[in-house]
Design goal:
Order of helices and strands: EHHEHEHEHEHEHEEHHEEHEEHEH
Bound molecules: pyridoxal-5'-phosphate
Number of domains: 2
Strand order of the largest sheet: 2-8-7-6-5-3-4
Strand content: 15-25%
CATH topology of the largest domain: Aspartate Aminotransferase, domain 2
Structural class: alpha/beta
Distance between the termini: 20 Å
Helix content: 25-40%
CATH class of the largest domain: Alpha Beta
Largest sheet: 7 strands, mixed
CATH superfamily of the largest domain: Type I PLP-dependent aspartate aminotransferase-like (Major domain)
């Protein structure tokens, strides 16, 4: 299979990721932070190593502020539910994913919600964004990169505005972690939510929340942490406060190797590779009859998530044809982000989405272009 569905989850994973998970399951997968026998200690050490790698990778000093979750949605839910109180105002953007939109919308009986608009290429207008700020604005949530068209959002500029106005900033790095360089401290991000299973090359069932704020979200889930067992109240210390229940240790062992893999290859090299593939694809799509690219038409200000439409064949049929005739995996329709489609002009059609990883190659892109030319 030629796998171009990496925005949903990356596949294949590096061999070191699969090996680490296998080793954990076969050799020591005991419950970390609970018992004191050697397998439990080994599990705890691996979990801590992964916190350290992630803290360093995203530029924060304290590994304890790295919280393990089960996916990006879980991380986003912790912050959105944990910092907003009745009467607060929150700003999202129309380019956000349903994991932000539905979570904030579910609270609109108690909070006010505004959406920053987008241009037809998926980019934001910072002046319009700033005009939405009110005296009760508590939180801004924004996707770093659109999962529909790959447009990169002005995260640093938005973080600067939030700092000046004393507003908390939650960045959804689902499509950027491991693909676009992120230094949480330098960029002034308060909370970073990311999946472990996309650009960080970990397995499904892993996610992270990195906290760089004194405002610690209230827990979403309460329970056993292996610490302060005599107390009925949830511990205050991170990561325990936000990590009740048994962790996904095999997944975390895989994620650790995924982050090490990215560090070894180098994030600049990863983004250069994806840019090259994107450039081939965009140039080729422009020459393919009946195909129109959605969003930015060149490689400036975007990543390797590319959406397009066919003038006479619907998106689902295009994806089905690519799969059955050429074993090419793409995703079609609305990508869990309908307001993005309204902004991008694809509200009725949806799009066919191609998304790259480090394991994709130029010959694969050429085969896709050939397949599309044969429709
Ligand atoms: C921008 C964006 N945010 C959030 C998510 C949710 O990620 P997860 O499936 O890890 O919860 C996705 C998944 O595709 C996404 O693209």
């Amino acid at each position: 299979m030629i796998y171009f569905d990496n925005a949903a989850t990356t596949w294949p994973k590096p061999a070191s990721v699969v090996r680490a998970m296998d080793e954990c399951m076969n050799e020591f997968a005991a419950n970390p932070g609970r018992s004191a026998h050697s397998h439990a200690i080994k599990s705890s050490e691996k979990v801590y190593e992964c916190r350290e790698e992630i803290a360093e990778f995203f530029g924060i000093d304290n590994p304890g502020n790295v919280i393990f979750t089960s996916n990006a949605t879980h991380s986003l839910n912790i912050v959105i539910n944990g910092v907003l109180n009745e009467g607060d105002h929150v700003i999202c953007t129309v380019m956000d994913h349903n994991s932000v939109l539905r979570t904030t919308f579910s609270k609109t009986k108690k909070i006010e919600l505004s959406f920053s608009k987008a241009n037809p290429d998926g980019s934001l207008n910072l002046t319009e964004f700033e005009s939405l700020i009110k005296t009760n604005t508590k939180l801004v949530v924004m996707t770093h990169v659109s999962n529909v068209c790959g447009t990169v959002m002005p995260a640093k500029e938005v973080a600067d505005i939030c700092k000046k106005r004393n507003i908390l900033f939650l960045l959804d790095a689902s499509q950027s972690a491991g693909i676009v360089p992120i230094n949480i401290t330098e960029m002034g991000i308060d909370y970073l939510a990311a999946p472990g299973h996309k650009g960080l090359y970990g397995p499904m069932g892993t996610g992270i929340l990195v906290i760089n704020s004194k405002v610690i979200p209230k827990p979403l889930i309460f329970g056993g942490t292996g610490s302060y067992s005599k107390e009925l109240s949830q511990p205050f210390e991170l990561p325990d406060r936000l990590e009740s229940g048994t962790l996904n240790v095999p997944g975390i062992c895989g994620l650790l190797e995924g982050v090490r893999f990215i560090k070894a290859v180098g994030i600049q090299q990863i983004s250069k590779h994806e840019k090259e593939l994107t450039s081939w694809l965009l140039d080729g799509l422009e020459e393919t009859k009946n195909i129109s690219v959605v969003g930015k038409k060149n490689t400036v200000g975007r990543t390797g998530v590319v959406s397009f439409v066919h003038s006479s064949m619907d998106c689902t049929a295009v994806s089905a044809y690519l799969d059955s005739e050429f074993a090419i995996a793409t995703r079609s329709m609305y990508h869990c982000a309908y307001p993005s489609h309204v902004a991008l002009g694809t509200k009725d059609s949806g799009t066919v989405r191609v998304s790259f990883s480090l394991f994709n190659t130029i010959p694969q892109v050429k085969l896709l272009l050939y397949a599309l030319s044969k429709i």
